[in-house]
Amino acid sequence: MRLIITDIKELQSAQNPTQRVITDNGSIHSCIGCFGCWIKTPGQCIIKDGYEHIGEQFSKCDELTIISKCFYGGFSPFVKNVLDRAISYISPHFVIRNGEMHHKRRYSNVIHMTVYWYGEDITEAEMKTAQSLVTANALNYDGRVNQVLFFSSADQAREALPL
Amino acid sequence: MNIALINASPKRSESASGALLSDLKGLLPDDQIVKSFSMNRPSIAEEEIKELCGCESWIFSFPLYVDGIPSHLVSCLYQIEQLGIKNQNIYIYAVSNSGFYEGKQNRNALAILKNWCDKMGFVWGMGIGFGGGVALNSMKGVPLGKGPKSMLGSACRTLVNAVSSHATADNIYITINLPRFLYQVLGEMGWRQEIKANGGKRRDLERRL
């Protein structure tokens, strides 16, 4: 299954039986750093706002597509919020991967990440950060990076997205 | 000089980011005016932003979230950007702490903050990427610069020197002074205790849904 996380609300209509789309319905709360998704309700966030199952949704996908406005080389507040709320996808236990400490897998699926960054004035430094960030994310998920693409507008990113 | 200490942990108490700021505050010279701010939600009051703009040095302290800065902090930074503040006399410093052992894993979070700083026209002072930050709360009695906080002490002194002289320096990546295997064992022991304290079993830490 493909999981799409995006700050472009119109993409909600791309949802179908093989493709789940997570967009902003205005109800998402920020992660409060309680680790409840690891130690109270393992695998699920304790904040019940409709976004508590994201970690589990990660476990059902082999393709993770992110379409995000680029904020300083990082994800937009909504997209980052979804990623912050998805840490239950991985286990709290540590593992050494590529010589660094990371979290152990909770699930066996391998996530392949494709990220569509968009924004009018993305600088070279921001592109470099964005690229490095996606590589680090994939390593933490023990997944792979498919592609990292940059567009000058949300429309361009949307048009390039195979649906 | 006015110095802003900005705690950007979402936790209202007992945060590693707060513990780091307390340690830093203790090193700042007495003649500096230090003001404390909190960015623990996705927005910040405009009066607070005005007050922040009266400070020449801002020191952010935040936890590493999924290789970057927490989403609520992205929102706050964007809110500040939208106000169109132009002040080339504001220097930005930051301490990013992570549960991972290697301080270098904070590099993308510091880069994001530096990119914001460049967009704002502020000056990037320097950053510290600290690995092993989650252990800080259990080490409140350990003096900065001693034992597991040895490297942290030296990095904090470098940062405070830069802040005091309104200067820039290279980012520093450090880790808690414990062997990695020991940090890993202690961390895993902690998770087992926590899940048991919440009525779960050790194997629940690996539960699949």
Walk me through this protein's architecture.
The complex is a heterodimer of chains A (163) and B (209). In chain A, 26% of the residues lie in helices and 28% in strands. Chain A is an alpha/beta fold and 163 residues long. Chain A starts with a strand and ends with a helix. Chain B has six helices and six strands; from the N terminus they run E-H-E-H-E-H-E-H-E-H-E-H. In chain B, strand 4, helix 4 (107-120) and strand 5 form a beta-alpha-beta unit. Chain B is globular, with a radius of gyration of 18 Å. At the A-B interface, helix 2, helix 3, strand 4, strand 5 and helix 4 of A face helix 3, helix 4 and helix 6 of B.
How many strands, which pairing sense, and closed or not: the largest β-sheet of chain B? 6 strands, parallel
Q: How many helices of chain B?
A: 6
- How many domain regions of chain A? 1
CATH topology tier name of the largest domain in chain B:
Rossmann fold
Radius of gyration of chain B, CA atoms, in whole angstroms:
18 Å
Strand content of chain B: 15-25%
CATH class of chain A: Alpha Beta
Radius of gyration of chain A: 15 Å
What sort of overall outline of chain A do the alpha carbons produce when their principal axes are compared?
A: globular
CA-to-CA gap between the ends of chain B?
53 Å
CATH superfamily of the largest domain in chain B: Flavodoxin domain
CATH classification class of the largest domain in chain B: Alpha Beta
Oligomeric state, counting identical vs distinct chains: heterodimer
CATH superfamily of chain A: Flavodoxin domain
CATH topology of chain A: Rossmann fold
What is the tally of beta strands of chain A?
Answer: 7
Q: Widest sheet of chain B: strand order?
A: 2-1-3-4-5-6
Helix content bin of chain A: 25-40%
pLDDT averaged over residues of chain B? 95
What are the segments of chain B in which pLDDT stays under 50 over at least 5 consecutive residues?
Answer: none
